[in-house]
Amino acid sequence: ASEQGWGIGVQNYQTVSTQKWIQPALKKFSLLASHKDQVTKLPKNAELIAESDFCPYAAFRIDSHILTFQGHPEFQKAYSKALIYYRQQILGPEVSEAGIKSLEQTIQPQAITHWMLNFLRNAASPK
């Protein structure tokens, strides 16, 4: 478990990489999250893709075969809300309320899905 505690609801990240497959190009993006664990040190040969104050290693890649995101582009807001309510006793009232309130923010799961597809296409294309 991370010393940061729970990351739930909408989390905001800054893009720090300029890889050509990061299209559409976004300097910032937001995804839904639900985690207490997070990467605390980049693996060998990893390139940081995105970060936040809460989650310094929010996304990274290793070569052309591993791409990770701490957030969940597959989550829907209704699912995230239900998960927060389900975990209310674990999260506590302050974290739960902040998580529910964060759901008012816009998220970019489609853009991040495009990044993933572009990454896979880039890896599969002949060099």
Describe this structure in words.
The protein is α+β, with helices and mostly antiparallel strands. Helix content is 31%, strand content 24%. The chain contains 4 helices and 5 strands, in the order E-E-E-E-E-H-H-H-H. It has helices spanning 77-86, 88-91, 93-102, 109-124; strands at residues 7-15, 28-35, 46-51, 59-62, 66-69. Strand 3 (46-51) and strand 4 form a beta hairpin. The mean pLDDT is 94.
Task: Write a short abstract of this structure.
The chain is built from 4 helices and 5 strands.
- Beta-strand percent range: 15-25%
Q: In angstroms, what separates the terminal alpha carbons?
A: 40 Å
Spatial sequence of strands, sheet with the most strands? 2-1-3-4-5
Order of helices and strands: EEEEEHHHH
DSSP strand count? 5
Report the uncertain regions.
Answer: none
Essential attributes:
single chain, 127 residues, alpha+beta, five-stranded antiparallel beta sheet, 4 helices, 31% helix, 24% strand, globular
